[in-house]
């Protein structure tokens, strides 16, 4: 995705920004690293915007009979963190004309955190590390196991997705070409080599990638 964002910036944003400095500008909130409060949009700005959309946008079905779907940024819902064991369910996304809401699966005490299952219980760590920047290491490594199952040609259903998983169905199976490419990439190093590199790696992206490789191999 980072490579695709760089290509998009070079193709669509940078040429227009060179023609007119007012075409694309970063306004407000930018510190020195972001080019100040009012600066020409950089590739880093575009990368941040892509991440924001990827990690927070929800696809919601339109009115019944229209066949439309809308990608929406919805305030408050994105404050819910991920917990695969959460009894609470985000529902209504896949029902035409449905009402988006979080159904409490148990009593919610004042001041307690409300979490949901990202991906409706059918997403694994391939999705989490790519779209959200974290790895789910709980529940016996279930989120790694879902990726391993997909690489073996299965379509993992996800642990205990409840109503939300029922809405979205099973995790789609990977194509043979995608599986082959992924297995070749994982097979390029041993788990011992990955663990040794993880001990000395410093960048967060690199450490997350290595932890992902190790988790899937195990």
Q: In terms of topology, how is this protein built?
A:
Blueprint: H1 2-19, E1 25-27, E2 38-40, H2 43-56, E3 58-61, E4 69-72, E5 89-91, E6 101-103, H3 125-132, H4 142-151, H5 162-168, H6 176-186, H7 191-200, H8 204-217
Helix pairs in contact: 1-2, 4-8, 7-8
Describe the protein.
The chain has 218 residues and is mostly helical. It contains eight helices and six strands, in the order H-E-E-H-E-E-E-E-H-H-H-H-H-H. The chain has helices spanning 2-19, 43-56, 125-132, 142-151, 162-168, 176-186, 191-200, 204-217, and strands at 25-27, 38-40, 58-61, 69-72, 89-91, 101-103. It has a two-stranded antiparallel sheet. A hairpin with a 7-residue loop joins strand 3 and strand 4 (69-72). Helix 1 (2-19) packs across helix 2, helix 4 packs across helix 8 and helix 7 packs antiparallel against helix 8 (204-217). The radius of gyration is 20 Å and the shape is globular. The model is unreliable at 31-35 and 156-170 (pLDDT under 50).
């Amino acid at each position: 995705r980072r490579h695709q964002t760089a290509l998009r910036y070079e193709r669509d944003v940078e040429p227009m920004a060179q023609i007119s400095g007012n075409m694309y500008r970063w306004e407000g909130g930018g510190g020195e690293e972001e080019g100040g409060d009012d600066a020409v949009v950089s590739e880093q700005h575009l990368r941040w915007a892509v991440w924001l959309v990827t990690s927070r946008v929800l696809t919601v079905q339109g009115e019944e009979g229209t066949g439309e779907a809308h990608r929406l940024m919805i305030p408050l819902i994105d404050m819910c963190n991920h917990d695969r064991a959460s009894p609470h369910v985000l529902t209504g996304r896949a029902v035409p004309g449905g009402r988006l809401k979080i159904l409490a699966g148990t009593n919610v005490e004042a001041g307690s955190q409300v979490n949901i299952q990202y991906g409706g219980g059918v997403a694994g760590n391939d999705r989490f590390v790519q779209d959200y920047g974290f790895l789910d290491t709980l529940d016996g490594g279930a989120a790694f196991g879902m990726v391993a199952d997909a690489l073996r040609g299965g379509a993992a259903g996800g642990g205990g997705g409840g109503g939300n998983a029922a809405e979205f169905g099973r995790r789609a199976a990977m194509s043979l070409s995608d599986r082959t490419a992924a297995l070749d990439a994982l097979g390029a190093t041993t788990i011992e080599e990955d663990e040794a590199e993880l001990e000395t790696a410093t960048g967060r992206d690199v450490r997350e990638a290595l932890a992902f490789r190790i988790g899937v191999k195990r």
